[in-house]
């Protein structure tokens, strides 16, 4: 038995000590592994729960439904709004704390309804050392149980376990909630969240794999990974991005030449797990054309498939 297999088995054995658990579930790799471990340990007494709100991209909710079905775990979906919290809307350095507190609060409400005492989250052993993490404080204060952290399971080991379970999200990139695209100090509003989601849906439709669209009060700053930067510099992409992003409400569209990196507008927010994995994580597999880098990008007058 490998070290990772031993950690997995220890986590399963530990979870068997609970009468039942509700797993805070985004469909990202961390929460998916926790859900799989819990389902192994507890069967029907393990329930995944996803909190739907304005900060959760629709594609992420669909991913969560699909992965819950893969695992074979019961799946509850609850709706709430972070925008009802003035502290969240203010978007200070504690935004993730307020968000995580509200999300986990919804999970505990579901747990009470199901007569379950324990809520699990997807914090892993790599998370605490990644700088300012106010979301982790909420986990501690609400006494959520983090089996990955408890058993020293790091992010690479999480992915290894996900592959052992044959989960489709095993290689899924990290995906923080949409509010992480809005610079600290700029209010989080429904209109800003909506245009960010629509812009990122376009990039996904065009075949980019890991990216962010940052909203600087009407200026869209596109980040893509360095290996996709050449493709993003193509004039066809520039023209299409400018047209479609201004159509959905941005005043100006820019490309960040430094490329994608987490937390570039809100350092506290973007590591996987700090926002409940809403962050969650996201990824698409799309073929790109190596020579021109423009396959899948529409002409400037053409609507991209899937854009409403």
Automatic annotation (TrEMBL):
InterPro entries tied to this protein: LarE, NAD/GMP_synthase, Ni-pincer_cofactor_biosynth, Rossmann-like_a/b/a_fold
GO biological process per UniProt: purine nucleotide metabolic process
Region (Disordered): 264-308
Domain NAD/GMP synthase, residue spans: 16-83
Pfam families referenced in this protein's UniProt entry, alphabetically: NAD_synthase
Any one GO molecular-function label of the UniProt entry: sulfurtransferase activity
Highest rank taxon of the organism: Archaea
Key words, A-Z: Transferase
Protein name per its UniProtKB record: ATP-dependent sacrificial sulfur transferase LarE
